[in-house]
């Protein structure tokens, strides 16, 4: 079996060849108008870096003064999307993501998300868009044993979900591209922390309406750019997740867009969707920005023994503080959920 260090060494030449051509290839030209409402009233919200993977680059989020939409500007190009997603959810990052997706906190979140559909009946067929490795579907099936769960995603994770039986059927590719062949197939479409990754959120909502049967339901959960935690923690706030999050949509904007698409809003919630990790993820982002890097193929060379030693000792020293922050996040969660510190919201909409 190939070791991680061998995998990193094998990937390094390709990454270094890409980076030698410069970072400009990874970005489109900057916009002068809001992609949501076309207003020119823009201001810079923040500049940050790729904290989770430490891939090179600086990323800007702008806010529209007219509608409040927050978006990446300049946006990643197709080459940039490929570069920054690679080895995050799949490849070198697959094992890490699998551990996170099966953690007790994640399982609890999956159950909460699945319960959001209970007041609206028991669906026959459910499509989870942006399903990853299908862990949500596997957990939701416990609550809906007669429902057939299908998954859709860009990466190979959705194929892993099918092989492991977490989804009954896997679709790999673009939701907007596949929507036509899935028209009217589903009673429920869920998009849990998916819409903020997409190039054109309104087109994704159109695709959801296409694949839903009349009377079917769309469940959308996204980070809340109006969260007070976003202001307090600044560029260290975990849900900014640059450069992967291209659009962060205020609740009122999403509600209006759904209504325009022919949906009726039947429920909104800012309490249950909160993910209690703000303090911990902010601290981890700070650590990642100051500590020597681990062995990663987008870094020009393998870290020295001294650098690896400093990183290991620093993480060991920081561990007690991180444990305290984890405890604080969980302890404060009941209060945080009931205030504007909540970091996410959910909308349930019926296709009329």
Automatic annotation (TrEMBL):
Recite the UniProt keywords alphabetically.
Membrane, Methyltransferase, Transferase, Transmembrane, Transmembrane helix
Q: Which domain of life is it from?
A: Bacteria
Instruction: Kindly list the biological process annotations in GO that this record carries.
Output: methylation
A Pfam family hit: Methyltransf_23
A GO molecular-function descriptor: methyltransferase activity
Residues annotated as transmembrane: 312-332
Q: What name is this protein filed under?
A: Class I SAM-dependent methyltransferase
Q: What organism, scientifically named, is this protein from? A: Streptomyces auratus AGR0001
């Amino acid at each position: 079996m190939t070791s991680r260090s061998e995998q990193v060494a094998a990937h390094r030449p390709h990454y270094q060849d890409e980076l030698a051509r410069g970072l400009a290839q990874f970005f489109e030209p900057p916009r002068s108008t809001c992609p949501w409402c076309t207003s020119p009233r823009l201001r810079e919200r923040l500049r940050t870096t790729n904290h989770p993977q430490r891939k090179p680059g600086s990323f800007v989020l702008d806010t529209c003064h007219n509608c409040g939409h927050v978006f990446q500007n300049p946006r990643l190009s197709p080459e940039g999307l490929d570069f920054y997603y690679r080895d995050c959810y799949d490849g070198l990052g697959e094992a890490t993501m699998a551990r996170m997706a099966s953690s007790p906190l994640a399982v609890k979140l999956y159950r909460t998300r699945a319960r959001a559909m209970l007041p609206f009946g028991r669906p026959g067929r459910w499509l989870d868009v942006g399903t990853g490795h299908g862990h949500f579907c596997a957990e939701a099936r416990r609550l809906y044993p007669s429902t057939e769960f299908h998954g859709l995603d860009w990466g190979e994770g959705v194929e892993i979900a099918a092989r492991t039986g977490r989804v009954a059927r896997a679709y790999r590719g673009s939701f907007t591209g596949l929507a036509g062949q899935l028209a009217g197939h589903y009673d429920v479409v869920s998009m849990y922390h998916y819409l903020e990754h997409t190039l054109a959120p309104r087109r994704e909502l159109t695709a959801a309406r296409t694949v839903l049967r009349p009377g079917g339901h769309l469940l959308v959960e996204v980070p809340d750019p109006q969260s007070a935690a976003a202001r307090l923690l600044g560029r260290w706030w975990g849900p900014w997740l640059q450069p992967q999050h291209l659009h962060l949509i205020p609740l009122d904007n999403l509600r209006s867009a759904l209504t325009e698409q022919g949906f009726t809003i039947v429920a909104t919630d800012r309490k249950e969707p909160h993910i209690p990790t703000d303090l911990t993820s902010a601290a981890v982002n700070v650590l990642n920005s100051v500590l020597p890097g681990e062995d990663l193929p987008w870094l020009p060379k393998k870290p020295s023994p001294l650098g690896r030693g400093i990183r290991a000792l620093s993480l060991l020293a920081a561990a007690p503080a991180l444990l305290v922050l984890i405890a604080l996040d969980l302890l404060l969660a009941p209060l945080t959920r009931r205030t504007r510190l909540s970091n996410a919201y959910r909308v349930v909409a019926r296709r009329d």
